[in-house]
Amino acid sequence: MSSPPKTRPETWVPAGAEKDVAADPTAPATTPGERRRQSVTMAPPEEPRSRRRIPRLKKHAVNLVWALLAAAIPWVWFLVRDLGSVTQLIALAIPVLVVAAFLGLAISLVDERRLSTLIVAVAVFGWVTIFGPRAATPAPPPVAPVRIASMTVGGTNADANAILRSVAGSKADLLVVVEPSKKVRAALAKTDRFPFALTSGPVVVLSSAPVRELPLPKPLPSDFIVRLQIDRPEGAFIVYAVRAGDSLLESTLNDPLKAQALRDAASDERLPVVLAGDFGFSDRSAEYRLFDGAFRDAMRADANAKSTAATFPWTLMFVRTGFVLTSPAWCAAQTGTFDVTGAQTDGLIASVGPCRS
Fold it and tell me: Any alpha helices (H) in 93-140, and if so which ranges?
């Protein structure tokens, strides 16, 4: 009886190998060991997690650096804001520019989340540049204060009776009326609310104490500035009644008041000084910073100063061109604004006097 044929181990073919051979008859013959290695798929070695984190960290670091650099760009403004009339126009338009940039970045945020850093930077920049110059600066209350009101009445169609009602409603001891028409000047001269009145060029001053005009130092323009002395029983003081040019843009570009000369002349006075009226420049301008460094902004005594522009489009630009400025030794209290019928700016009211020590 014959035994069954023995199977040789070296001729054993893994399952599925016959198909590969049949599929490609021209392929070279392979040994059984090679066939076994071909049938096994080895997984690639796993990369350590620490190495995988490095590219991600580099990417986040680069993105953070670019975001911080972009967020720092708006603050370059503080290096160039005093370089000329062009920068003063930009300062005037900062609220509009900030809103436009904020909206543009907010829309882009839908596609790129990294812009959130820029949005925060623009918001902070807008807050500092717009509301910083009008933030409250608390000080001691004044002693024996005088109540001063300033109002700008532009145009020949102003209602004299309405102006008189605004004057009576101010309850001021000293009223500076800038740019009144002939009709308004005549009505103010007849009012019995104030015992003393003085008219000089574009300014009418009504006072409860004697008032007299003083010579104006050179080179200050007499068309825009009137220098006065108020002789109060508590002590005399000097008033510079100020009016701006014909328009805000003209005043911003041409500096009709000669701000540097006005600041120097008022700083050299021996008596306490009050500057009041429509200065024609905003509190974001280089001219305002000249005065803010030498005088006290009375309208920032009790709370944040309010915008004075009362007509479109200036109301949208947070413009404040009316000021009551005092010597550093004088303080203010009970400040605010009031409506002036037909005027382009609101009136200002403040109680000023020597600071209580």
Answer: 94-108, 116-131
Pairing of strands 225-230, 237-242: antiparallel
| Residue for token pair 């000249």 | 290
- Which residue shows structure tokens 């000293």? 174
Which residues on neighbouring strands pair with residue 355, listed in sequence order? 142
Residue whose structure tokens are 């204060």: 145
Residue 188's Cβ-count burial label (10 Å; 0-12, 13-18, 19+) is buried
Output the CA torsion 287→293→296→300 (10° steps): 70
- Whether the CB-CB separation of 265 and 72 falls below 8 Å is answered with no
Record the pTM.
0.76
Beta bridge mates, 130? none
> What type of residue sits at position 273?
V
Q: What is the pLDDT of residues 109-146, one digit of tens each?
A: 655 555 666 777 788 888 888 888 999 988 899 999 99
Kind and range of the H or E element at 229?
A: strand 225-230
As a whole number of angstroms, the distance between CA 177 and CA 151 comes to 5
DSSP string, 259-325: HHHHHHHHHT-SS-EEEEEE-SS-TTSHHHHHHHTTSEEGGGSSSPPPP-B-STTGGGGT---EEEE
Burial class (CB in 10 A: 0-12, 13-18, 19+), 20: middle
> Rounded to the nearest 5 degrees, what angle is found at the Cα of 176, between the Cα atoms of 175 and 179?
140
- Measured CA to CA, the distance from residue 275 to residue 327 in angstroms comes to 9
pLDDT digits (tens, 9 = 90+) for 26-38: 555 555 555 555 5
Q: Check if the beta carbon of residue 327 is closer than 8 Å to that of residue 273.
A: yes
Class of domain 136-354: alpha beta
